[in-house]
Design a protein that fits this description.
The chain is mostly helical. It contains 7 helices and no strands. The protein is elongated, with a radius of gyration of 19 Å.
Length: 210
């Protein structure tokens, strides 16, 4: 059966492929350096890990459903007010920006990237994009789910948005607790200078030493 995909379906399909390729690259970089790219869950509660996995699957599932059938947007209480081409194009732009942000974040981390907490001590990366925000990869995922909500504005996408924002905010907090234990004052000073998901407007004036 021949499938005639719209440009939005093609965009989402292309994004999903690139997302998976980038994910593989993020694992290969530290692995080629002899590091364990997966890391360990540490003290991260198993319930939160399951919730995070289900949220990721929901995100991917919504994309696959829409690529297969655009009418799937109508299956879960569509929100008519923002279901139009303007918001869909805006959603594509947000996802595109998020993908660039994620790519830059992963490449800047390089061999220091881990899916969970590292088994061994890694370097504290504070240059590049990390000189402006502490969690660019987490922010990129938040942008992904916001963009997807604009493209497929229904109850399921809204649930996906809320779940993933909660997951990645919680994950960021968990990582920061670990980094404070490992890097101590160095990370505390970094945390004071640099915003969590957004740049601090007062960063330059509040920094008194190089």
């Amino acid at each position: 059966m021949k499938m005639n995909l719209s440009y939005i379906q093609i965009f989402l399909l292309g994004y999903l492929v690139l997302y998976l390729v980038l994910f593989l690259i993020s694992l290969i970089i530290p692995k080629r350096a002899g590091k364990d790219s997966k890391g360990v869950a540490g003290g991260y509660p198993s319930g939160k890990r399951i919730f995070a996995s289900l949220s990721s699957l929901l995100f991917i599932g919504i994309i696959i459903l829409y690529v297969i059938n655009e009418d799937s947007a109508n299956w879960f209480l569509k929100i008519p007010l923002i279901f139009n081409e303007f918001f869909q194009i805006m959603g594509m732009a947000i996802i595109g920006f998020g993908f660039v942000l994620e790519t830059v974040g992963i490449l800047t981390l390089g061999v220091n990237f881990r899916m969970m907490l590292p088994k061994e001590r890694t370097n504290l990366v504070t240059h590049g994009i990390y000189a402006h925000i502490r969690h660019p990869i987490g922010l990129s995922v938040i942008l992904f789910v916001i963009g997807l909500f604009f493209i497929v504005p229904n109850l399921l996408s809204l649930v996906n948005l809320v779940c993933n924002v909660l997951v990645y905010n919680s994950k960021a907090n968990f990582e920061e607790h670990y980094l404070l234990k490992v890097h101590k004052e160095k990370y505390e000073n970094y945390k004071q200078r640099v915003g969590k998901f957004f740049p601090k407007l007062t960063r330059q004036t509040s920094t008194t030493s190089p």
